[in-house]
Specification:
With 397 residues, the chain is α/β, with parallel strands linked by helices. 26% of the residues lie in helices and 26% in strands.
Length: 397
């Protein structure tokens, strides 16, 4: 096997595939000079899992063979990275093969730690303990919701970064809407236990979502972090992050957003900052220490939400700056922190949050996006998946 490539991309998710596709579109000289390293055999469009958990989409529509999304002209190496040696422009794979590169793109996503909440891993997918953050278990979320007849429905958001920060609350809104449609809402108490200080970071959308919570009669408890599930007793244990006080909630169903963090092989490398994320310039996405290394997506230490929409704006910046570096030019393309969160607030209702590093709205539609709209729901459900598979992964949007 070859041991040198002009561009090595670690990660075959949204970020890695998008950058590879853009580089190949921009430079014909890179055909067969880009290798994408990822051990997974499948590629997932994870934003669909909220709708799958709410019974509005099929999980099979979120899955494709990895081989089918690798851009023509790129090489896929179904392997994993063990070590980075950026001083030598080398990586070492799991089978101890060393690869040399001219440029490295680190796009390995975020790692889910199911074990960080005591009792969660063992209980997941059973006894009304569900989570949309797993392809394997997302169907069980819908099974739990549609078979629920009454009692306490508990939804949680952890004290860690998460991919798509709005997802833990989206499924709660869908569940509430379903319970209402089934005429059983009066029999159900809905509690949102969130480690965050508020329902959303951006004031405009926070205000709108606070009204949604009030309208839906949801008991939102902030700075409340789930630390344990006692599945046999159906008890959730929370820590108040301000006071340290421990409390328990008796539930009849629980949807858990698990702890997430930087992938271990990145966190333990010289590419990482003190929190384990790839340490890049927040505008150019170039590594702060190694000029021929770039990072984007969920594994980067960018002070914005970890979403596919953010990657859509980051990928062109990385591609342009790699090509500029190849020409020995100054990197000039800049990322402004744009991210978007289509917040499903019920069936056929959605608030489209768009914002940048300043936490100010950066809206792309000619109307107030903090208003719940059926049109925006249809965009998420029907249009965005097409844009993803046929546009973003092809490097055209």
């Amino acid at each position: 096997m070859r041991n040198f490539f002009k561009v090595v991309i670690v990660g075959g998710g949204t970020a890695g595939i998008s950058v590879a596709a853009r580089l190949l579109r921009k430079s014909k000289g890179l055909e067969n000079e880009i290798v994408i390293i990822d051990p997974a055999s499948k590629h997932y469009y994870q934003p669909l899992w909220t709708l799958v958990g709410g019974g509005a989409s099929k999980k099979e529509d979120s899955e494709r063979d990895m081989a089918s999304v690798i851009p023509e002209g790129a090489i896929w190496l179904q392997n994993a990275v063990k070590y980075f040696h950026p001083e030598q422009s080398q990586i070492v794979l799991d089978d101890d093969v060393t690869l040399n590169y001219e440029f490295l793109v680190v796009a390995s996503g975020i790692e889910i730690n199911w074990s960080a909440i005591k009792g969660l891993k063992e209980a997941l997918g059973t006894n009304s303990v569900c989570s949309n953050y797993s392809f394997e278990h997302v169907d069980y979320t819908w099974e739990t919701i549609r078979n629920f007849k009454g009692g306490t429905a508990l939804f949680t958001h952890p004290n860690s970064p998460v991919k798509c920060g709005g997802a833990p609350q989206k499924i709660m809104y869908l569940a509430e809407d379903y319970f209402s449609k089934m005429g059983i809402r009066k029999n159900i108490d809905i509690i949102f236990g969130s480690a965050n200080p508020a329902i959303f970071d951006v004031v405009k959308y926070r205000t709108a979502l606070e009204k949604v919570i009030e309208k839906k009669h949801i008991d939102a408890r902030f700075r409340s972090n789930l630390i344990e599930i006692k599945a046999d007793e159906k008890i959730a244990v929370f820590e108040n992050l301000d006071t340290g006080e421990i409390s328990e909630i008796k539930y009849d169903m629980i949807h858990v957003a698990p702890y997430m963090g930087a992938p271990a092989f990145i966190a333990q490398s010289s590419l990482a900052d003190s929190n384990g994320w790839v340490d890049v310039d927040m505008y150019t996405l170039q590594h702060k220490k190694y000029a021929n290394v770039f990072g984007l997506g969920d594994n980067a230490n960018l002070p914005t939400s970890k979403t596919g929409a953010a990657i859509r704006k980051q990928a062109p910046v990385v591609a342009e700056n790699i090509l500029a570096s190849m020409r020995r030019q100054t990197v000039q393309s800049k990322y402004d922190g744009y991210s978007s969160c289509p917040i499903v607030t019920g069936y056929n209702k959605l608030i489209l949050a768009e914002f940048d590093y300043t936490k100010e709205p950066v809206e792309s539609m000619p109307f107030n996006q903090a208003v719940e709209r059926p049109s925006m729901y249809m965009m998420k459900k029907d249009l965005l998946p097409i844009m993803y598979w046929d546009g973003m992964l092809k490097g055209t949007m």
